[in-house]
UniProtKB/TrEMBL annotation:
UniProt KW Flavoprotein keyword: no
Record's keyword terms, sorted: ANK repeat, Repeat
Start and stop residues of the ANK repeats: 570-602, 603-635, 636-668
Pfam family, one: WHD_GPIID
The GPI inositol-deacylase winged helix domain, residue ranges: 354-435
Name under which the protein is recorded: NACHT domain-containing protein
Amino acid sequence: MSGNASKWTQKTFESFEIGLAALLSPSLQSMCASPKIKFKNEEQHERYLGWLSSETFAADLGKPIYQPGTGKWFIESLGFQTWIQNRGQTLFSHGIPGAGKTSMASIIIDDLNHRHGSDPHVGIAYIFCSFRYCDDPRQSPDNVLASLIRQLVWRLPRLPSTIQVFYEKHRGNGSRPSFNDLCKVFKEVVQMALKQAFIVIDALDECKAATVSRIISQIFETQASGNLNLLATSRSVPAIQAKFLERPFQEIRATKGDVMTYLEARLKDCEYCALIRRPALQKEAVLVIANSVNGMFLLAQLYLDSLILAPRAKDIKTELDRLTNRSNRVDKGNAAVDDAYQNIVECINNQDPRRQRLAKDTLSWVICAKRPLTPLELRTALAIELGESDLNDEDLYDLEDIISSCSGLITVGSDGTKEVVQLAHYTMHEYFTRHQAIFFPESDKTITASCLTYLSYDIFQQGMCSNDIEFEDRLSQYPLYSYAAQNRGHHARVHSTVDDLLLGLLRDPDFLNSSFQGLFSLKGYYESESYCLRIPFGFTPFHLAAWFGLEKVLQFLVSQWGLPCARDSTNRGPLAWATLNGHISVVKMLLDHGVEPLQHDDDCQTPFSLAALNGHTEVVKLFLDYNIDPNPRDIHNKIPLIEASYGGHHETVELLLSRGAHPDLRTITGGPLSYGHAIMARLR
């Protein structure tokens, strides 16, 4: 273990499931390898790989808190030793929630690093899946595979020629390689560039099923070369377990010895509490907890937190008796975790009313936000008051007060590029999601109102910024601007009402333009200057309602102003934007109003082809149900089947074929058969 791995933090709920890979050892960041193009300098090397993927999946999961020696039983097990010592092996490691699967994945990566870190011809790559990013593009099949490739080729001074070819081909027009293109590169890297490759994927159950299916299938296919080893962790989910039938598996559980090591080390770091002053009681606590957790590190942490907060020896003994009685009951596992969380909620409810309100508002934002918020974004969100036209630093809560009010339920981690505030464990998200109707019955309505209030501040009435410096200054001064602009419609769609504040923003052109700029201005890896002006101009309220899938708002707008015919500067109408984002109810509404589904934009795309390209199978089906020709050609002679095949969208391709799409149609760049899709390949 590295020195960093032995340093413990005392923050409550820094769970054993927190990813530790980034800090386990300095060399862990540089784990990867590959061949063929010699770079003139490191900058060129970094440019190619930075373009390929910016995701390392290492630093986004927090601090290491496990102790040296924990997990040794797994590393020494027959299953792991067979996996590590033989080529072409798969090991599926499943476990109950809170068992320490992510920590074990980090221990495994550290072990691989110690074994093979000095060999540049051994590639090591890892993916830490997270429920927080389940719907985020970073966990799409394309981005996950691109990240694996980047990590595998990182250490060698030569890259496969295909990476340079793709870079030169795509950088000019801002496009990306297709999933099928990336599969070819992945195979080339594993089979030709490396003598051995190891891939560790943690928490498959926290990733979209479509991503899991495509990535695992590609890895299994590539394993035929014999030099690729895969180790994956997951909860015991039948759909995931089915993918690993006939392959070796090993359960991950918190052993009694590991739990006791964790508890004893954490108690040494406690500065002051009643338990610390009573050595005999400490020993009893360690033993009782170790016997009560039933293989869950998470419970060990929750139980110890409860004891540390106990002010008297009598309270400690009462809590230990409660734990002993609970361990003798049948309701272990999830029921025990729920019970522990309910106790924390009761602690929150026993606080001063103002701190209680702060805690509930904080949890509402952290749990219901569409992406993790930075500390400053959260502080800003909590300071918004309806009806106000601005806020200043005096309105903000201190981060320490925010965290302490939540009794350890939230912590500050990292998403790989910045600090974010997050729940300390996946099971907390599940618990509060199950009980959202009780704890946060109108969270999306409240967040929508806060976002709209923020976007109606006086500063945004000035309209769009004219240059990047001015725009970035606005982002800095108004840290929730980006989140509010990009997500207020998603929250509004959930509670599904036509809000006067929303309509007011839609009617005011300056507010509207400010929100468009915040919605579309995303600075890319190699974006040139004036990126803040590279947005669709001529966006109308109809476009915005369609973009977010706000059906009731769009119905209201149509009732007031008639059929939306306007097009923006990219020559797209509302139907194109609704289709692009897969909002099927809005697409149906617009089709019912007679909006043309085959109008071309400036990229020669139609709403129909956009649906196929992005794999929105239900939207494609809707178009076909409206008797739209399955083979409409654009000016390049392309048909939707080509778009779906290029994107690697299995279900969409199957649907189009079943409804009469022609797989043999040719274009100037080839036909559907040219893109290597598995279904297309069977038609050759």
